[in-house]
Amino acid sequence: MLRFILVVSFSFMLIHAPPSLAAAKECEVAVAKDYFQKKRNLQEPDFNSYVLEQQYKIFIHGYNCMHPPFLYLAGLMAEKGEAVVEFLEKKLRETEDDGVVIGIIEVFVFMELLQTYRVSADKELIEVIQTTIDNIDAENTREFAQSTFDRLYKPRPKTLN
Fold first, then answer.
1. What would the pLDDT profile of 55-108 be if each residue is shown by its tens digit?
2. In this structure, are residues 46 and 38 in contact, taking their beta carbons and an 8 Å threshold?
3. Contact 27/65 with Cβ under 8 angstroms?
4. What distance in Å separates the CA atoms of residue 55 and residue 143, rounded to the nearest whole number?
């Protein structure tokens, strides 16, 4: 299921992503550089050995600084569900970087798809996300953020059993 979601999200991003979302400072995070120097098959199991703030830095780096974006990290963050909602909402309120906004929204969409947290039922969080999107200055980036957020309300893909 997670692989299917990643493929769909990656395809969507390749088609709709606005250029150059990342701020240079996010691409210079030492913990993220160390993480991405590991072989790919060692990255995912190692992710949970980091504290939440480091996981977040790795996620933002992988999402905004790696090309193509490492979308599996959004899935790993989303698997934590309610345990990271408050943390991510705080980061969403604090950031002025549109790429970070879109990355965090992607995690919330993954939470809904993976059913680790009902973002769509959290009216306060929905309001924070929508207000943040509405405050994005660049029209194409705002539209991309909105289309990413709108995926929250699309029907879930059926699992094969």
1. 999 999 998 888 888 889 999 999 999 999 999 999 999 999 999 999 999 999
2. yes
3. yes
4. 27
